[in-house]
Amino acid sequence: MLHNCARVFKFGSIVSYKWIGTHFMNDILQKPKMSIRKLKAKVSKRFNLIASVGQCKNARKYAFQQIEGTLIEHYAKTWSYGEELKRKTPGSTVKMEVDVMPNGETYFSKFYVCLKALKDGWMEGCRRVIGVDGCFLKGICRGQLLAAIGRDANNHIYPVAWAVVAVENKESWKWFLDLLIDDIGMGVGHGLTIISDQHKGLVEAVKERVPATEHRQCARHICANFQKRFKGQIFKKLFWRAAGSTVPQKFEYHMNEIKKLEPLAYEHLMERDPKTWSCDAYENGVSESFNSVIEAARKKPLITMLEEIMIYVMERLCIYKAKGQSWDLNICPSIRLKLNKHKKTQRFWQVVPSGYMQFEVRVGTEGYPVNLNTRQCGCRAWQLAGYPCVHGYAAISSLNRDPEEYVSEWFTTSMYASCYRYNIRPLNCSAMWPEVDYTKPLPPKKRRLPGRPTMKRKRDQVEREAKGTRHTVSKKGMIMRCTICRERGHNRSTCPLRPNDVPSTSGSNKKKPKKQGKVDLEAELEVEHVVMFESESDSDFESESDVEANVPEVEVDVPFVQDNLVGEIQDDIQVDANIEVDVPEVDLVPEVEVDANIEDEIQANNGVEHEIEVQDNVEQEIQHNVENQVRKRTRKTSERITKIQIRKNIRRKEGSSTDHPLEI
């Protein structure tokens, strides 16, 4: 017996997610970000079979588990990993905490890392400014990663310490800050500046642990929250002008402009302590940059993520050290670029010497005092930034001196070399880690967060604009301006001065017009003056087609009538047969010499009478339009009545007890 069945590429339980994960483990290891669609295509291409999306998703998860081990085995290695870090990087701070339950079970809680190479590099070559922030872990191991990031002499990010905690709250931040401050030796925070977002737990932890530190807020986060309540580009521009003001007078001026527009917006910003988000250091971009760099690592298990972060900083120290050694400069390149911008604009400023290395730098009526001995300027930009402003650059250039000599030592290449002087020693594989007598911790209990789990952080409007992401602009609050009358409050589609024959360009006029009541066609019908040529001679006349072309077309709006549609419309239409038409006298066309043949034809038709009655033509046109509209309305009415009758029959068959009134 011959089989006519088609070949089936589904093998049931033979092809399981474990079988797929085992065969594609190397592919998934090489490309951890491989999508489910690509994995499904690889399975189909290699084995000529069809795998479901769920099988591929579970296969990828199974492959990761086989590579990294199960979560229980994975977290059991955390003590050994910490001891390996201490053994390979002497002087580093590695702290781990666990939660012990009443039944004796031990669960992982926190893990803190501060490598000695990073700690010493920050203390020797970085300014005393640290940005702290937290981000979510996106992999199998849930939790949050806290990080402390500094800036090197070239204004690049410089990781100092990081920690994994279960929740970002006051207790976790206080624990992190206690270890961080002890490592960098800042005591209660004298001379230290911390930049962060507006997290309540972090703000309270900073006040309790380092009360003497200068805690600044990230202006971008304040702007994002400010834009949620007070929308509009004008508020955004004024906010950033106020945040970037280096003198109190300019700050107050821009804040007063906001107050004139909306007093509540002014009060909202003043409640946020403007001293903490204005002037030079007002963005926590270093923390956001570090979070984006380690985004791929945050999707992996705990130890693998910590290893990848350490590999990243280890490689970074080596690369940036070689880069610094290749520079033949006194100051770092990023600062030199900023000075080059001042070089182009300093020629517009007039330098007036005052003696004792003091100058007044002016342009028009605006002037600022500059003191080269104290490296200060009246605009305060030099004191805040650490390198000469445009006024200081102009004063230095007037003495034929090099402006780079007046740059702060924190931006010199020697300080940059101090940041990357140390290196990090690599670790052994997990099989060679030392054994520890501590109780092996279990994975932390899963926390069910509200809402659907998300992998991407919700970006605010400022970040989307900076990244170039497409976004829709709301028309809320926008004042329309009519293009016909140029008045505000409406557009051309609703303009009272818009002619009726002009088509509308807006989508609102595409709706079906509302049904109106009966109208008196006799009152609505207006016959315009028709220009006719009359002449007693037989040769001075127009053809009948020319006269019809001059007759205006009359459109009759016939209302929709339900009952006895044709009869009522015919009764309503009353056209007077004796329509009087005023025919004005029109100058004839100047006489033109006529061909002899045409003249003979005209004389041959001399006996034909050409009587053109405009009244009959208009009446015929009206009757024709009425018949067309009646025909269309009748067809639509019959179709609708048929549909209603079908619905009623269906309801009767279904046994409906009530008849719903239907409107036509």
Describe the structure in your own words.
The chain has 664 residues and is of the alpha+beta class. The protein folds into five domains: 12-68; 71-217 and 283-327 and 430-448, no CATH class; 219-280, no CATH class; 331-411, no CATH class; 521-581 and 612-654, no CATH class. The protein has 25 helices and eleven strands. The strands form two sheets. Strands 1-2-5-4-3-6-7 form a seven-stranded mixed sheet, sandwiched between helices. It has a four-stranded antiparallel sheet with strand order 8-9-10-11. It is flat, with a radius of gyration of 42 Å. The model is unreliable at 506-598, 604-612 and 656-664 (pLDDT under 50). It comes from Lactuca sativa.
The Rg value, from CA coordinates, equals 42 Å
Mean pLDDT: 78
Number of domains: 5
What percent of residues adopt helix (DSSP H or I)? 40-55%
Q: Which regions contain 5 or more consecutive residues with pLDDT less than 50?
A: 506-598, 604-612, 656-664
Beta-strand percent range:
5-15%
What structural class is derived from the secondary structure elements? alpha+beta
Tally of DSSP β-strands = 11
Widest sheet, order of strands: 1-2-5-4-3-6-7
Count the helices. How many?
25
Calculate the terminal CA-CA distance, rounded to whole Å.
Answer: 65 Å
Shape: flat
Largest sheet: 7 strands, mixed
Could you give the topology of this structure?
Layout: H1 17-23, H2 25-30, H3 36-47, H4 53-68, H5 71-75, H6 78-88, E1 93-100, E2 106-114, H7 116-125, E3 129-136, E4 144-151, E5 157-165, H8 170-184, E6 193-196, H9 200-209, E7 214-217, H10 219-229, H11 233-243, H12 248-261, H13 263-270, H14 285-293, H15 302-325, H16 333-345, E8 350-355, E9 358-363, E10 366-371, E11 376-377, H17 381-385, H18 390-398, H19 413-419, H20 461-467, H21 521-524, H22 544-550, H23 565-572, H24 596-604, H25 614-654
Parallel strand pairs: 3-6, 6-7
Antiparallel strand pairs: 1-2, 2-5, 3-4, 4-5, 8-9, 9-10, 10-11
InterPro entries: MULE_transposase_dom, Znf_PMZ, Znf_SWIM
Biased composition (Basic residues): 443-459
Region (Disordered): 443-472, 493-519
